Amino acid sequence: MIFDPPEDIQVYRTVRGLQVCGDSRQILNALPECSVDLIVTSPPFALLRQKSYGNRHQEDYVAWLSEFGRAAFAVLKQGGSFVLDLGGAYQRGRPVRSLHSFRVLLEFCDNLGYKLAEEFYWHNPAKLPSPIEWVNKRKIRVKDSVNTVWWLSKTDHPKADVRQVLVPYSARMKALLRNPKKYYAPKGRPSGHDIGGSFGKENQGAIPSNLLQISNTESNSHYLRTCKMLDRDSHPARFPVALPEFFIKFLTDEDDVVVDIFSGSNTTGEAAELLGRRWLSIEQRHDFATLSAVRFMKDWPEEAIRQSIDAIDNGDCLDLNSASVPAFAYTSRDAMDGPEQVTLFDRGK
Predict the structure, then answer these.
(1) Which DSSP symbol is given to 348?
(2) What span, in angstroms and rounded, lies between the C-alpha atoms of 155 and 141?
(3) Which of these is catalytic: 5, 43, 44, 240?
(4) Is residue 269 a contact partner of residue 17, using CB atoms and an 8 Å limit?
(5) Residues ≥6 apart with Cβ < 8 Å to 198
(6) pLDDT, tens digit only, all 349 positions of the chain
(7) CATH number of this structure's domain 17-167+209-285
């Protein structure tokens, strides 16, 4: 195995991935250069109020996040991508937006060597109105429901295939495809954007836009139900699985390596596992890393979940390679050196 992390930072394994606990900067520096196809992550945001998951203040946010960006650049393959989800914020005591997310983009591109392949915007219609002072009380600003998502790359031509993320045609487009001549005649537009006869070609779906409308309405998921059953606090800032799923489909192929450097509840690892990608998730807080294991315990008996999570708390690395519903699902570290261990990184791929 090319990447062999210290035993004391390994939390659990699945058939395709590994969750570790530690500082992402140090762990990235231990990975082989040019070994990762995609990093998709949502770091703690630069908010004014301190959160339980350890967000940074706006003043030092750019310099702090750039340390991770520099380490990530070295491990990305030439065709690899770094997808960074950042939420906006207001300046302290003023109805004026902070520019930190844009300063991060400029720092990454101007000084770290990244290219901005494309900017995306994640619209969460279910997001509550905030901040209360400007939106709810004084009513001088509208609800902030959009995060910027920077798609960064090492080269001008990163691996990407929009055919993997096509969206269903609208009813109007379906009608046009059935009888193109009835609904549209090829012609030039005043804008100069001419549309030819191939406009009515069936392509198995429409090209998505860079506005991703994904409601973050999780309330009764397996992860949340299990955290409640265990009487443990779930991660408070989870993004929906559809967000990393989109970029994993778009920017990687089966068996590629996906990494999340601020994994939280490990939504990215779950999406990568389901899509047949190898993955590595890194989370600094051991309690969050431990609880994220329950994402891979669907249909497990309650007692098996309890015993397995307790085993991680006691220092064992949970091994999910052998069975989906074990009577007791952890193995000692000495038993994890066999041929079933997944190889996460391979320079030949």
Answers:
(1) T
(2) 38
(3) 43
(4) yes
(5) none
(6) 357 788 899 999 999 999 999 999 999 999 999 999 999 999 987 754 554 545 556 678 999 999 999 999 999 999 999 999 998 888 888 999 999 999 999 999 999 999 999 999 999 998 888 888 999 999 999 999 999 999 999 999 999 999 999 998 877 767 767 777 666 666 666 665 656 555 556 677 889 999 999 988 776 789 999 999 999 888 877 889 999 999 999 999 999 999 999 999 999 999 999 999 999 999 999 999 999 999 999 989 999 999 999 999 999 888 876 544 444 444 444 444 443 445 565 433 4
(7) 3.40.50.150
Identify the CA nearest to 114 among candidates 151, 60, 149, 148: 151
Contacts of 13 (CB under 8 A, 6+ apart): 19, 317, 318, 319, 320, 321, 336, 341, 342
Residue 318 forms beta bridges with which residues?
12, 330
The predicted model scores a pTM of 0.86
Q: Output phi, psi for 160, to 5 deg.
A: -165, 145
Look up 32 and say whether it is catalytic.
no
Q: Is 129 an annotated catalytic residue?
A: no
Rounded Cα gap, residues 259 and 344, in angstroms: 10
Q: Give phi and psi for 310, each to the nearest 5.
A: -60, -35
**Which of 149, 150, 152 has its CA nearest to residue 239?**
149
Is residue 110 annotated as a catalytic residue, yes or no? no
Placement of tokens 């062999």 in the chain: 4
- Element housing 37 (H / E): strand 36-41
Catalytic residue among 42, 153, 234, 308: 42
CB 241 within 8 A of CB 267: yes
Q: Out of 5, 35, 85, 263, which one is annotated catalytic?
A: 85
Sign of the C-alpha dihedral computed for residues 142, 144, 146 and 152 taken in this order: positive
Under 8 Å between Cβ of 260 and 139: no
Question: Domain ranges in the chain?
Answer: 17-167+209-285, 169-206
